[in-house]
Amino acid sequence: MDSNDFGLTEFFSEKTQKKLRFVLLGLIPAYIFYLLYLIVPIPLSFYYSLFSWSGIKDLVFVGLENWQLVLQDKIFWKALSNNFLLVILSLLIQIPIGLLLGIFISRKIKGYKIFRVIFFLPYIMSAVAVGILFSYIYDPNFGLLNNLLQMIGLESLQAAWLGNRDLAIYSVIGAISWRFTPFYMILFSAALVSIPQSIYEAARIDGAKGWQQFFSITLPMIKPTIVNACILSLTGSLKAFGLAFTMTGGGPNHASELLATYMYKTAFTDMEMGYGSTIGIYLFLIAFSISMTVLFLTKRKK
Amino acid sequence: MKKSSIFYYIIATIFSIIFGYPFVFMVSTSLKGNMEFLQESIWAFPETYKFINYLDVSNSGFYKYFYNSIFVTAVSLVVLVFVSSLASYIITRIDFKMNKFVLATFVAGMMIPIHSTLILVYKISRFLNLNNKLIGLAGPYIAFMLPVSIFILSGFMESIPKEIEESAFMDGASYFQIYTKIILPLSKPALSTILIYNFVQIWNRFVYGLILISSPEKWILTLGLWRFQGEHGFNVPYVMTALTLASIPLIILFILLQEKVVQGMTAGALKA
To answer: Where in the sequence is the domain holding A56, given as residue range(s)?
Structure first.
């Protein structure tokens, strides 16, 4: 027996001891990574948010000053409202188109496998790659979009898609939608395939037409998936970073700023680590409260 | 029926162009010369296929970025799969009275937005002397994929009947033997799901490389891609070559393992 087991031998049988030792040893690796890089940063960020800290110079305690400054910071509110714009437009664009494509894929019409490959490709690309690709699609001079508009005689609609302050955020959201719609397509097609065909047959015997079937059977059957998709798009939009960062860097003049890009720039470009930590903690609080609300609402329903 | 299938094909064609054409543009432009790109119509296909672009771009450092990405992704995946499956095994198969609590602590991690932790991940990495080291990326990669991986794996392991390991216990097998000889082989479907999901996620990760890696010889693919565009942005065919190169592994993986990738990517994201 180990001599340094603090007398646990008396309380636990040898079998239990062996078990607990394995449990402890087995969980330690997971907890090391998890605590070090995911959990500990949150309280420490809170701590650093109480300081003015430029990364190089010493920490100066400023109390809750950063917290107040963030609330008065126009760029922070601009970024937050862009994040919410992203939520709303994601719900309006990605989910309906995803559903439409999901229906198409799940019908298994001839050639659906090829279409599925094409539709799914954007989702496996990295955000950086899509961001770079789209910065050439949106380019004012040799971009695909302006060239297309010229080809179909709509020159008047040509624009500096990423350089124009009113358009930049919509262009970024367009690229984000291009990348994430395929995900919702797959989500919906999986749900649609699992609806038993016998229900449709029964409806057909009762004389239900295509659209009637869609609204009286399909939609109610996949309602949980639609709710799930909405939650995912809500929480996912707070994580948006790579695409906006590579396409516009949040510009021009913060017009397409998102919380994550603003946090990154404050902390790592301007080296305002204390202020950056505060933005990070606000981002955490927003994401956390949304998650908790969603969790509460879905739990209560059950 | 006839009319509706024509309608489907029209819609499918329109969306094939929307989702597919950017890839056609990417690959087609990657094979053009820069002058050709600037002077000819952007819709035209290359006059001659300039495969030399691929050689030029690779030699500018891309093969190095590839190697770096493969290295970091492989190390992270091996550790991640081991650590998360071991934890999931303990959580679901060994009763130690706090199983639910332990699972809950990991699942709670899914609510933490990655960007809230960046400054401290940077600080902690410097403190551990792991900044500007490739291996230093593995820690954050593993940590951030742990909650989803444990969630998926423990959900699956839960469903394996308890009787399976009882006879092994009788024969005197240890917990670790049961984990490696019985539970891991039975969990193959879930393991392949998290492997694919995590591969795509880690391979595509950008922000940790951005904050932790400064030396060009240690750039991972996403970082190299971004820097490359910053430097050669005026040479569009080069940028498209770099994009194509960087996307090839994922596209090949996807075409080879279609069903698995689709399933893995959705299962992972649904839980995340």
So the answer is: 8-61
ipTM given for this complex: 0.89
Residue A286 in any domain: the answer is no
Q: Which region among A62-76, A247-261, B28-42 has the lowest average model confidence (pLDDT)?
A: B28-42
User: What residue type is A36 in one-letter code?
Assistant: L
At residue A60, φ and ψ (nearest 5 deg) are -120, 120
Helix-, strand-, coil-residue percentages of chain B, each rounded to 5: 80, 0, 20
Q: Does a cis peptide bond (omega within 30 degrees of 0) precede residue A252? A: yes
pLDDT tens per residue across span A195-205: 888 888 888 88
Pair (A28, A110) in one structural domain: no
What DSSP element (H or E) covers B123?
helix B118-127
Average pLDDT over residues A105-131: 86
Total domains present in chain A: 2
Q: Is B39 on the interface with A (CB under 8 A)?
A: no
Distance from CA of A60 to the nearest CA of B (A): 17
Nearest residue of chain A to residue B99 (CA atoms): A23
A192: tokens are 């649609």
Whether A125 has a pLDDT exceeding 50, the answer reads: yes
Q: Residue B124: CB partners within 8 Å, gap ≥ 6?
A: A36, A37, A40, A41
Q: How far apart are CA B79 and CA B58, in angstroms?
A: 29
B204 shares contact with chain A (CB less than 8 Å): yes
Of B58, B245, B51, B93, give the one whose Cα is nearest residue B180.
B93
Beta bridge partners of A51: A61
